[in-house]
Amino acid sequence: MSEKRARSSACRNCRIRKRRCLTNPSDADRSCQLCKQQFIPCSLTRRIGQTRPIACADDQLSPATTSCATASYVPSDDQVLPIPPQPFLGELVDLYFRFIHDGPHTLFHKLTFLSRLAQNLVPSFLLLAMISLSSRFSTNEYFGDDPRPYALAFATAAIELLQKEMMQPSLESVQGYILISQHLGGEGDVRAKHICTGLARLHCQSLRLWDTSGMTLLEQETRRHTYLSVVITGNWSTADMSIAPVISEYPPENLGLLDEEDFLALRKRLPQHGIWTQMAKTINIFREILDIIIILSSGETLASQIHKVGLLANRLDQWERDLPARLKYSLENLTFFQEIGFGKTFLAMHIGYHHYRQLLYFPFLDPRNDNRLASECKKHAMVVSEIASQGGELVYYIIGHILVVSSSIHLHTLLLGGGDVDRARQHLLSNFDMLMKLKRHWPVIDAAGSLVILRSFQNHCRVSSLDSFVLDDWMWKFLMAQSAVLDGNR
User: Fold this and answer.
1) pLDDT given for residue 402 in this prediction
2) What's the pTM value of the predicted model, to 2 decimals?
3) Cα(218)–Cα(237) distance, rounded to whole angstroms?
4) What is the Cα–Cα distance from 114 to 179, expressed in whole angstroms?
5) Is the pLDDT score of 470 beyond 50?
6) Where are the alpha helices (DSSP H) in 266-342?
7) DSSP character string of 97-137
């Protein structure tokens, strides 16, 4: 005879799925019926003082991962879930490489990672951090109606394990902190995200990841890609915190990365059209654009920064002119990179470039300033919307922030003119549609995040359209913070 447990003492799996938690008093382990049916550990069976491995369902840990995969504490129900069993685990890893990797960051050689996964050689903290991102996109019945609580549990377990790695820097710990920072940013936990990006950088510095002399091609490229990801993530994180980014330890544009397909095949050839190589050249430009926004927010006039704006615009112009023909933005080139598996990376490079330009020119939308460059801002905001609508490949949370900035520029056209009103309206609608899709996966875009901020900005425009584009304290945070949750009332 099954007994129904009180709601407060139901196991975590039943609470997430909003199911009755039924147990059989005669069962020694006290697992509930639902967990038994799904062949997963039930939180009701945990006891204080036990040591619980966090590993695949068959609990077969290789010697290479045992040291970093065992928790000597007992997590509470809300802290941890085991790594899902195969083949479902493989599905989650595939989702990560499909939707996340080579978009906001580049950390792994895919085939090597999959090989290590098959041999059970991937540290548990790294695997948990990875699936905390990819599980958001899963439609597998394992997660029931909503995978996001599971994503949170995976990340919590990864963070607990990473705490043990804090004083033991490794390439994997750097990668783990980067992955967790992406999770935290998507949750809107900006301070925790900044701490994790800081730890990634400290570990990176202690390992000198940019120094690859005497290493194999695989080791060289993986370290270089991870170092580049640390620099990129650090710049976005300091923007979130409204502080100026720091200068990189080693110039990222000098890394000498292989082209994407050559890295995948582990063959050394002269670079021809490396996407990450080109993106590395814009990192310092982005940092200097953020510096200008911070300076303007402190009360400096745009006139005092106009020379810097011109210099940065020239550098961005030169960057675009110097792009290899294969990397110019066109549907033909997009198709080429989609066919070799790097369409997302190609789009990420171009949407980043146009986002930098819409940020650079945004102050010219303020009616108090010379608005001769406002049309440039609007032109790049249009391209941002066009790129984001290409096939739904850009689905990481930072895209939500980029689209919110683009949407605010389209609102300027609708309210104050100075551009193609019909196209602005069309792109505003497409941006909103994309944001609605992104909010399914990223709480920072839902709740009090990007959508609320955009609605707040829109309402302010209706009340006072002329004042809405003044670069006040709220507005410059609006431009810089992609993870921070701003006060909806300006």
Assistant:
1) 95
2) 0.82
3) 28
4) 17
5) yes
6) 275-280, 283-297, 306-322, 331-339
7) HHHTBTTTB----HHHHHHHHHTT-S-HHHHHHHHHHHGGG
